[in-house]
Amino acid sequence: MHLIQQELDQVAHEWNTHTIRSSKHCFVPAGVPNELYFLPEVYTMFDANSSHVSNPIYNVCAGTSNYVCAVSHHDVHVCRDYAEEPDPPASLTLEFLQAVNELMVHRGLLFPDSIRDAMLLYAELVSLLDDY
Which domain of life is it from (predicted)? Predict the structure, then answer.
């Protein structure tokens, strides 16, 4: 799993630190995603008299003058439900994971450090499990 997480972290870093150019065809802010998120005051103007300021949950919305609009608590809960880690499939039980780990130890197989090694390990495990 650490290999997949490492790849996801790399993609997230590259996305969050690249610069989004302004576009005449689209009403979205230009800038670096991390800066747009963590420093919205640099890219937007907040109206002190706006009802948006009192709402702690904001979302960037295309086409508005300050790119900020309220998001309902219901929408936040829906997003959290989709973002929660799903239960593992029934075939991926703790016993199965323990058996695969024991098989790896018995065969001297190591956790991969690269995508190529991960593919080779996967192929080896599939081959060994097919023999059962």
Answer: Eukaryota
- How many C-beta atoms surround the C-beta of residue 67 within 10 A? 19
Q: Where are the domains of the chain?
A: 1-43, 44-86, 94-130
Give the integer Cα–Cα distance in Å for 113 and 4: 10
Rounded Cα–Cα distance for residues 30 and 98 (Å) = 49
Identify the pLDDT of residue 91. 62
Those residues with Cβ within 8 angstroms of residue 86's Cβ, 6 or more apart along the chain or in another chain: none
Find the DSSP H helices in 1-132: 2-17, 33-38, 40-43, 73-83, 94-107, 115-130
Neighbour count for residue 36 (Cβ, 10 Å):
19
Q: Please list the ranges in the chain whose pLDDT falls under 70.
A: 1, 26-27, 41-68, 88-91, 132
